[in-house]
């Protein structure tokens, strides 16, 4: 049941250059779909494995604003 796809360039004289390039791209994807799927699945498995193996690291930041009491305003003391 396994049939190998053979790349045959299209001879579509009714299409312009951009349409021919699009069909060539689609033909290339059809011819190499197994490689594309294998590479994608491998990347997903490797990234998932690495994320499980790396130690968990959590970081937090905080900002503190200290305002002086209202009675110690320098501007009102000099006036």
Keywords:
mainly alpha; 79 residues; elongated
Radius of gyration: 32 Å
Which band does the percent of strand residues land in? under 5%
Spatial separation of the terminal alpha carbons: 96 Å
Structural class: mainly alpha
**Total number of helical segments?**
3
Spans with pLDDT under 50 lasting ≥5 residues?
none
Got a strand count? 0
Order of helices and strands: HHH
- Compute the average pLDDT: 79
Largest sheet data: none
- Regarding quaternary structure, what we see is single chain
In helices, the fraction of residues equals 40-55%
How would you describe the shape?
Answer: elongated
Brief rundown of the structure:
This protein has three helices and no strands. The protein has helices spanning 17-31, 33-53, 74-77.
Describe the protein.
- The chain is 51% helix and 0% strand.
- By secondary structure, the chain is mostly helical.
- The radius of gyration is 32 Å and the shape is elongated.
- The mean pLDDT is 79.
Walk me through the topology:
Blueprint: H1 17-31, H2 33-53, H3 74-77
